[in-house]
Amino acid sequence: MSGITFSAWLRDAQRAHGSLPADLIQTLEVTADACRRISAAIGQGALAGVLGAAGSANVQGEDQKKLDVISNDILLDVHSSGGHLAGMASEEMDDPFPIPDGAPRGRYLLLFDPLDGSSNIDINVSVGTIFSVLEAPAGSNAAEVAPFLQPGTAQVAAGYAVYGPSTQLILTLGHGVHAFTLDRRAAGEAATAGEFILTQEGMTIPAETQEFAINMSNQRFWEAPVQRYVDELLAGKAGVRGRDFNMRWVAAMVADVHRILTRGGVFLYPLDSKTAAKGGKLRLMYEANPMSWLVEQAGGAASTGRQRILDIAPTGLHQRVPVILGSRAEVERVAGYHQGE
Ligand SMILES: O=P(O)(O)OC[C@H]1O[C@](O)(COP(=O)(O)O)[C@@H](O)[C@@H]1O
Ligand SMILES: [Mg+2]
Ligand SMILES: [Mg+2]
């Protein structure tokens, strides 16, 4: 173990790149603190009565779990004292949440999916938090949607926490992708107890893979290019690909993307006739953009099938898009099929 804490690493990155403003460092440190608290809440599970439904629905009409609400509240709470953020936007809230009056306003906008894969909570399987940081345009009002509607290429930081057998924080500032692991030992047991510690610098996704991730139950709803691609994977050695492929689906984007950053693979939540009217299943601002930047920074690619995800000009805070990301050669092949190749 390196023993380099997240805060120390951020300060090293500031020295190395000379372009990491103090309020961006604060944004990331406070977000890491929120993830530590969410990890603790999740870790209490059935002991603390935090499992199960909240009895409410979010802006997208989806039933909320208690931990969706708890995670959202933790992120709002830790960031509300202000100084570093102008405002926040969450998958769980209809409207942007500007830093409250009276607290100092900063220049960054934080967007998050407070708990990703929340249907996994009650079965004790990995979930996560995804975040994206943008700079608020000068003179903009973070109570409005407009300042948040920036393409993925404008992100200044993106990352996620995965709450699995260990809790990890994965981050990009545009200079590669780095992993930090929460030292879960009790205070007093170790000097770094409670800290995120650097455990991998420069995660990379191999260009080729033999593993794919897709919800096969949607097969009959997919468009022809995805039908063709998956048929070819399933044909294995006997088909045009000439080799067998394995399949995994955790049903938490964080966990599926984490596997791809760790050992390669391709993830697809493509356009299908069930979700076409909404534009797709996954959310551009809270899921697709931060994950696409991380994947590109690790040498992979991310596309809707028709365009690079990071180039999409957003039209709504809760906009949904098709997502195909991971090993570059596979993403390019699927995009090629969409272009009629
Ligand atoms: O249940 P499905 O259709 O397989 O969808 C799984 C996808 O839905 C999501 O769980 C949506 O995220 P939320 O839990 O944040 O709503 C993704 O993480 C995951 O990839
Ligand atoms: Mg999600
Ligand atoms: Mg969520």
UniProtKB/TrEMBL annotation:
First-level EC class: hydrolase
Concerning InterPro entries, the annotation shows: FBPase_C_dom (IPR044015), FBPase_class-1 (IPR000146), FBPase_N (IPR033391), FBPtase (IPR028343)
- Positions bound to Mg(2+) 2: D113, D116, E287
| UniProt GO MF annotations | fructose 1,6-bisphosphate 1-phosphatase activity; magnesium ion binding
Q: Does the keyword Cytoplasm apply?
A: yes
Any one of the GO CC terms: cytosol
Required cofactor names: Mg(2+)
Q: Please list the residue ranges annotated as the Fructose-1-6-bisphosphatase class I N-terminal domain.
A: 12-200
Coiled-coil features, chain-numbered ranges: none
Q: Which reaction equations make up its catalytic activity?
A: beta-D-fructose 1,6-bisphosphate + H2O = beta-D-fructose 6-phosphate + phosphate
This entry's comment on the bound cofactor is: Binds 2 magnesium ions per subunit.
Q: What is its EC number?
A: 3.1.3.11
Which SUPFAM superfamilies does the record cross-reference, listed alphabetically?
Carbohydrate phosphatase
What Pfam families does the annotation carry? FBPase, FBPase_C
Query: What are the entry keywords?
Result: Carbohydrate metabolism, Cytoplasm, Hydrolase, Magnesium, Metal-binding
Q: Where is the Fructose-1-6-bisphosphatase class 1 C-terminal domain?
A: 205-338
Task: Report the subcellular localization.
Answer: Cytoplasm
User: What does UniProt give as the signal peptide span?
Assistant: none
Give the record's GO biological process terms. fructose 1,6-bisphosphate metabolic process; fructose 6-phosphate metabolic process; fructose metabolic process; gluconeogenesis; sucrose biosynthetic process
| Subunit structure, as described in the record | Homotetramer.
Q: What HAMAP family does UniProt report for this protein, alphabetically?
A: FBPase_class1
Family assignment? Belongs to the FBPase class 1 family.
Question: What is the name listed in the Swiss-Prot or TrEMBL entry for this protein?
Answer: Fructose-1,6-bisphosphatase class 1
Q: Which organism is it from?
A: Amnimonas aquatica
Phylogenetic placement of the source organism? Bacteria, Pseudomonadati, Pseudomonadota, Gammaproteobacteria, Moraxellales
